[in-house]
Amino acid sequence: MQIGGGVPAAPRGAGAGPVEGVWRLAAPSRESSVPQARHAVRDLLAAQGLAGQPPYEDLLQGLLLIVSELVTNAVQHAAVLSPQIVVEVVIGGGWVRVSVEDSHPYRPTALQNDHGRTGGRGLLLVKAITQEVGGACDVHRTVSGGKAVWASLPLPAPRPAAYAVPPR
Hints:
The protein is α+β, with helices and mostly antiparallel strands. It has helices at residues 33-47, 57-78, 122-132, and strands at residues 21-28, 84-92, 95-102, 136-141, 147-154. One of its GO terms (molecular function) is protein serine/threonine kinase activity.
């Protein structure tokens, strides 16, 4: 499973921000796609400079949890009408956005917190993560009649290197 699109990764310097671009990953609607999508997105974000640097670690963990929840929802609830899902990652304008698209027309809603339930809180968790950092999430219809569930999170400002060495 590979993510396609976007721009190639550039060498990252200390204090450099992430590379902007759009990447799409198509995957079958099955349970094994959940960890595969999570790992592919993690590797992509690392290649774009959003891993291994202190200002991005919390963002990275939140995004990976969001990807896991959105892909799990698509696999569990849309697979009957959507044999394939598409995960999209967009980095630009100070934001990173992840979305999961499927062919099922049903528009999900976040359940209220019910302590008696053991599941069904994925969208509630996605909403909580995005609201905590000042982001946004929603669902929109696709031109094919399906839907895309997305979450956008603001990128923290990159920290400048404390003792940057000028290039020779």
